[in-house]
TrEMBL record, chains A, C:
One of its GO terms (biological process) is asexual sporulation. Its EC number is 2.7.11.1. It catalyses: L-threonyl-[protein] + ATP = O-phospho-L-threonyl-[protein] + ADP + H(+); L-seryl-[protein] + ATP = O-phospho-L-seryl-[protein] + ADP + H(+). The lineage of its organism: Bacteria, Bacillati, Bacillota, Bacilli, Bacillales. InterPro entries: Anti-sigma-factor_SerPK, Anti-sigma_F, HATPase_C_sf, HATPase_dom. This is Anti-sigma F factor. Residues 35-140 form the Histidine kinase/HSP90-like ATPase domain.
């Protein structure tokens, strides 16, 4: 393990920006491109927002933990909440599926997480909480320029 | 400077370290201007609105003044 | 309590920047000036560096925890290590006192923390660890411009 942190914070929307910044600093050692960083922040943002709005449904009542590990250019991040959980995980993953259409949620959160990362695992127990574990490998700059 | 800015805008592959340095430079200038005009330091929100970036970007960029290597150097010099 | 976070990380120099960043994001809600932000970061930096270089003496062997609370414009931050501890706390606080003169340490860490904050408390047990608790009140902008 090259590095490892745990961040624990109150589930409120103000802290979604905090979580994004902490994760940005955590991957600074990788020196990502602007695009990679912005994709990674989007992934974190979707997962943390889900924990706040679906996990707890109300600002300021619960706790969220983020556990992140880095090994060379691979990051594994778990976003943990102790909220209401997800009854049907494969349904939740489906594009456009949302249980909060009234709040203008798009139902695209998990789809976005999947497309901007290498792996998304969801572990959830109803009324106990949800852990979303995201793996992201950052390609060294030489390789990515070959692809582009 | 114009050339660097264009490069930063056009190319998603630019290293974040470089774009942060660029913003840092702008922050210093904006702070000097603000000090002259208002005779006090700008807050980070004021800088964010002047430079049309987010508060987070201001916080990130001002931190880049000291790179993580500096402590390492202190430790093993 | 307006907000509250806990960060736990490996005691290594790379994470001193991370800790600074996390605390910067945490106080962003107060909307400090760049100068206040930079002073506050210096305080965090001195405390975290102490935990790394004096608490554990070696990179990557121990854990550091930062617990921060915000109430309106007041921040209380504790930096905790489980390292060697401080035998004589009042001596450690003295300007220029250092147990590592050979590493070009200035012995001014605690003096800097004190001058850039409103209160510094040190609680330490030899061979158990050290907790440094810093209180900092941020003056609203109207008042500070009146002073200037
Ligand atoms: N942390 C969570 N706790 C409880 N339910 C969740 C959580 N994350 C996601 N869900 C469920 O999965 C659904 C799909 O999530 P997502 O793809 O992000 O879409 P959206 O957030 O727009 O609804 C949500 O509507 C919600 O029912
Ligand atoms: N977290 C800590 N664990 C053990 N000893 C510490 C810690 N923080 C400070 N000290 C002791 O207090 C002394 C003074 O600290 P400081 O004022 O920061 O000066 P310096 O770090 O330059 O030595 C250190 O030299 C060290 O002996
Ligand atoms: Mg969502
Ligand atoms: Mg010191």
């Amino acid at each position: 393990m090259d590095n490892e942190i745990t961040l624990s914070f109150i589930a409120k929307s103000e802290n979604e920006a905090l979580a994004r910044m902490v994760m940005s600093s955590f991957i600074a050692a990788i020196d990502p491109t602007i695009e990679e960083l912005s994709e990674f922040k989007t992934v974190i943002s979707e997962a943390v927002t889900n924990a706040i709005v679906h996990g707890y449904e109300e600002d300021g009542v619960g706790k969220i933990e983020i556990h992140a590990q880095r090994l060379d250019r691979e990051i594994v991040v778990s976003i943990v909440d102790y909220g209401r959980g997800i009854r049907d995980v494969s349904q939740a993953r489906e594009p456009l599926f949302t249980t909060k259409p009234e709040q203008e949620r798009s139902g695209m959160g998990f789809t976005i997480m999947e497309s901007f990362s290498d792996d998304v695992e969801i572990y959830s127990i109803p009324d106990r909480g949800t852990t979303v574990t995201i793996t992201k490998r950052f390609v060294p700059i030489q390789e990515s320029s070959r692809i582009v | 400077i114009g050339e660097i800015q264009r490069f930063l805008r056009d190319d998603g592959m630019v290293k974040i370290s470089r774009s942060i340095r660029e913003l840092n430079f702008k922050i210093r200038h904006a702070t000097d201007d603000f000090l002259k005009k208002h005779e006090r330091q700008p807050t980070i929100l004021e800088l964010a609105s002047i430079l049309e970036v987010s508060r987070e970007e201001i916080v990130m960029a001002t931190d880049a003044l000291r790179d993580p290597a500096s402590l390492q150097e202190q430790l093993y010099e």
